[in-house]
Amino acid sequence: MGITIQEASRRSGLSAHTLRYYERIGLIHEVERDPSGHRAYTESDLAWLDFLTRLRSTGMPIADMCRYAELRRRGPGTTAERRRILEAHRERVRTRIARLTEDLGILDYKIDFYATTEAR
């Protein structure tokens, strides 16, 4: 059938607590259960968890992720709205990257300044 929550946790890098939380708030559908009632994750579940992890690591708010997940569950008729959500998020990520690049330049400048000062 599927893999256990412990194995899904190991493979996804998310804690079992986070996996249960994601299920509870609707980020992931209700996970299949094995005959003894334990969660049984599929490869498809793991691929979705990977995508969710990338959304989180790029700063997408949980509320936006839940909205996206709900639209995904509704099916192909929601692709345009899902695309708009991802495009808006992409723009926020690009803005953040630009700011971080600027900040990195300042750090590099200061490090070079101190290295030059110390060399005297």
From TrEMBL:
PANTHER family associated with the record: HTH-TYPE TRANSCRIPTIONAL REGULATOR ADHR (PTHR30204:SF98), REDOX-CYCLING DRUG-SENSING TRANSCRIPTIONAL ACTIVATOR SOXR (PTHR30204)
Biological classification of the source: Bacteria, Bacillati, Actinomycetota, Actinomycetes, Streptosporangiales
SUPFAM superfamilies, A to Z: Putative DNA-binding domain
Entry superkingdom: Bacteria
UniProt domain HTH merR-type: residue ranges: 1-71
Keywords assigned: DNA-binding
Protein's UniProt name: DNA-binding transcriptional MerR regulator
CDD domains noted in UniProt: HTH_YyaN (cd01109)
Pfam name, any one: MerR_1
GO MF assignments: DNA binding; DNA-binding transcription factor activity
Segments forming a coiled coil: none
Organism for this UniProt entry: Streptosporangium sandarakinum
